Amino acid sequence: MKGLIPICAGLSLCAIFASSASAFDENASNSLLRLNGATGNGRADDTEAFRRAIAQLGSGGLLFVPKGHYILTGTIVITTPITIVGVGAESQIYNNNGKTLFQFVKVNNAAIRDVYLGSNSSQAGVSLIELQNSHHNEISNVTLLGGYYGLHLAGSLLNTIIDLRSGTNFQGFFAPTSINYSWVMAEPLNGISANANTFLAPALEGGTNGLQIQDNNGQGSVQIMGGTIEGVSGVGLTFQNTFLPSSVTGVDFESNGQDVNINSSSNIRFSAINSVPGPATSNPAISLSGDTRNLQISDSNISSLAVNMSTKRVILQNITFGTPGGAYCANANLNVPPVVSVTTSIGTNLTPDAITNITATNVGNYCGGQ
Asked: How many angstroms separate the CA atoms of 223 and 214, rounded?
């Protein structure tokens, strides 16, 4: 080791600090990125500086991204467990060449934190962060703007995503940015499903779709706790052909084209959600279709629900339909089997005996005074 500086402060203990190139010095002049030529001035291409700096890190290394506007023209591929950390919204990294920004390939126990990521590309498959068969990683306090996908979980398991949010184009630095297809896409890759990824307090607003979980291996699952998905023109949350248990708790859905679409997916539990679509939408807030089984919604406020007759074993418990306001009340309805085209009354007329495959307990219509 070199450059070790002993610092003692009148105590018997002495802390040893390394004056390494990855230190969090205030002026960032000693950061590994700057020492490898990154300017962060919003004009120069800093791609190779990122690549050189990462190449110098070993397993467990830390790459500090100082305050700046970093332009990249290529993909930063990460194959060893390192931590990338910035200072938050002022560590801005932007790809202006239609490429995925950060790609983690077969990596476990890596992390990316406190950065602001952008892209000008809406080309299919282009992501701001892509995890390929990578597991047990952490993404924390990351803001996304643009890209076809914001976060792409391709055959990746057991990752933790904390405070993931969509962004605002600060001072036009990220101009032009694309309109994303989906803020988050989770799907299989190389025969491995995207299972048991956990989202804590996501804030996904605007764009086309919020979070999509797809599978074709009899697996696929996600855990979402808290946060909001709102203002997307498509669907806020989609489950397609998933089977392993998933849970969605305490999430606010608001003013989306549709809040939740579940198709041929099973073993999903929703609790304490608020589902309020835009007053002009003609889509049900939540729809269940295909071979969907074993779904429970409890302790929630929902404006409308459509259940296809092909679904099996749906439980509704402690549900309020409708929200204060004339436009929301006008659209409040529960469309259920056995005849899909018939809208069944809400409240006292909603009984388990009248509805095939649905068990409903303590379900009332706010708009009807229940």
From this structure: 14
Asked whether residue 317 is assigned to any structural domain, the reply reads: yes
Domain assignment of residue 344, yes or no: yes
Q: Which of 341, 287, 332 is nearest to 314 (CA)?
A: 287
Number of domains in the chain: 1
**Beta strands 14-18 and 4-8, pairing class:** antiparallel
| Three-class DSSP labels, 187-218 | ECECCECCCCEEEECCEEECCCCCEEEECCCC
In a domain, 13, yes or no: no
Q: What angle do CA 190, 196, 199 make, to 5 degrees?
A: 115
pTM (2 d.p.): 0.85
Q: Return the amino acid letter for 358.
A: I
Structure confidence by residue, pLDDT tens digits, 330-368? 554 555 543 332 233 343 333 343 345 778 788 776 555
Tell me the β-bridge partners of 82: none
The gap from C-alpha 154 to its chain's centroid, in whole angstroms, comes to: 13
Domain enclosing residue 114, as ranges: 65-368
Distance CA(15)–CA(6), nearest Å, equals: 6
